[in-house]
């Protein structure tokens, strides 16, 4: 059997209602321009070449390219089309075959559609003809990057996370910028292929009962048990609701923590280089971030829990330090001290201001990620007590027998 070309699909043409809506809007703009020319007696060249009407044309043509790129993703990618994904899970389709509905990657029909918008920009609107191409390409690349995260294709998503901010660096123009864009396209295509190989994705299996049927599990198991989740009835009241099984906390792997911290530092470096931030504001920003991040981590850990007894109880018992509970303060304290030391380093970094700030910022994120204890182990072994939530007071009352 003859295999279809990978860059051809008769199904990717934009739908007729979308095309009709675009031409109606564009005709209204052009018609309004003609009526204004007749009423005001202005030459058509003067009015059509004005900056206001050129901006209107740019918005319409750019929005059309963006909407078409979003249509291509939402319509043809299984991660964005849940009924399509459910049908694929029940079908004999594999990643070795093309997607039945149509390819997600650009095909020659996309070049025809964007080419028509480019021609309209060149000869009708008299604006930059590269605008539709840039709008379509940027929307498609950003959308595919988000889909890499949704489908948990983490290697490709991490590589894209390092390449995207490199485009805003001051020296990235001409050939370096083109090489980065080519790298983005290649990584997205390879990541897309890898994500299809891991289909069905976990979020589809947890959200769609059809995935359980495809995997051989019974409908009764789907209703009672969900993988990774243990749900407790809300009518149990406090403290039964607090002590009952819930969604399990998952700690972040050390390799993932290192990569995310490096990514955060790299983004900050690119922003500083692009915005030319004043070096005098660096130490203060580092300390403020460290202080706020430490408080947020402590609030996340200590939500609805408290120490075994109060400060007065510690003074009365002579046990000022409770190692089981007080270990939760170690990482926030280390983050604040690191922020103070990092602010001093940034203050005296001189011409290395951007590099020093990004390294300190990445170190703070790494400390927040890998600093112990994990919340799950601390909840189980921390010698703490549960507090009654304000919005979940126990509705159960003792009744007289």
Question: Could you characterize the architecture of this molecule?
Answer:
With 401 residues, this protein is an all-alpha fold. The chain folds into 2 domains: 16-202, no CATH class; 257-386, no CATH class. The protein has helices at residues 16-40, 44-48, 51-76, 82-90, 108-124, 131-150, 154-163, 175-197, 202-207, 209-214, 219-224, 240-243, 254-275, 282-301, 311-317, 323-326, 330-347, 353-370, 375-381, and strands at 305-306, 385-386. Strands 1-2 form a two-stranded antiparallel ribbon. Helix 3 packs antiparallel against helix 5 (108-124), helix 3 packs parallel to helix 6 and helix 17 (330-347) runs antiparallel to helix 18. The longest helix is centred in the N-terminal third of the chain and has 26 residues, at 51-76. The N and C termini lie far apart (80 Å). The model is unreliable at 209-232 and 393-399 (pLDDT under 50).
């Amino acid at each position: 059997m003859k295999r279809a070309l990978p860059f051809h699909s008769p199904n990717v043409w934009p739908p007729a209602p979308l095309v009709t809506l675009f031409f109606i809007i564009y005709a209204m703009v052009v018609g309004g321009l003609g009526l204004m020319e007749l009423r005001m007696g202005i030459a058509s060249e003067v009015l059509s070449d004005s900056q206001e009407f050129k901006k209107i044309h740019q918005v319409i043509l750019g929005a059309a390219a963006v909407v078409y790129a979003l249509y291509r993703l939402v319509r043809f990618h299984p991660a964005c089309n849940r009924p399509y994904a459910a049908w694929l899970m029940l079908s004999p389709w594999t990643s070795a075959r093309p997607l039945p509905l149509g390819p997600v990657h650009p095909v020659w029909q996309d070049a025809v559609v964007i080419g028509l918008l480019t021609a309209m920009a060149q000869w009708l609107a008299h604006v930059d003809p590269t605008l539709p191409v840039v709008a379509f390409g940027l929307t498609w690349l950003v959308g595919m990057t988000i889909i890499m995260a949704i489908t948990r294709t983490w290697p490709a998503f991490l590589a894209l996370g390092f390449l995207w901010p490199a485009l805003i660096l001051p020296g990235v123009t001409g050939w370096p910028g083109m090489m980065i864009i080519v790298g983005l396209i290649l990584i997205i295509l390879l990541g897309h292929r890898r994500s299809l190989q891991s289909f069905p994705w976990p979020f589809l299996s947890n959200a769609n009962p059809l995935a359980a049927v495809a995997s051989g599990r019974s409908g009764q198991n789907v209703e009672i048990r969900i993988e990774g989740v243990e749900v407790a009835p809300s009518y149990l009241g406090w403290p039964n609701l607090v002590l009952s099984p819930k969604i399990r906390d998952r700690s972040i792997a050390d390799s993932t923590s290192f990569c995310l911290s490096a990514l955060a530092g790299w983004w900050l470096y690119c922003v500083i280089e692009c915005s030319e931030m004043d070096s005098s504001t660096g130490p203060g920003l580092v300390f403020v971030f460290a202080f706020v991040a430490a408080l947020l981590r402590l609030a996340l850990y200590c939500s609805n829990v408290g120490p075994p007894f109060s400060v007065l109880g510690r003074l009365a018992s002579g046990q000022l330090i409770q190692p089981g509970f007080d270990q939760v303060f170690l990482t926030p304290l280390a983050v604040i001290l690191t922020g103070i030391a990092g602010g001093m380093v940034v203050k005296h970094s001189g011409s290395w201001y951007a590099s020093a700030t990004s390294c300190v910022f990445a170190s703070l994120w790494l400390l927040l990620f890998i600093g112990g204890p994990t919340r799950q182990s601390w909840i189980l072994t921390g010698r703490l007590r549960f507090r009654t939530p304000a919005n979940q007071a126990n509705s159960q009352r003792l009744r007289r027998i």
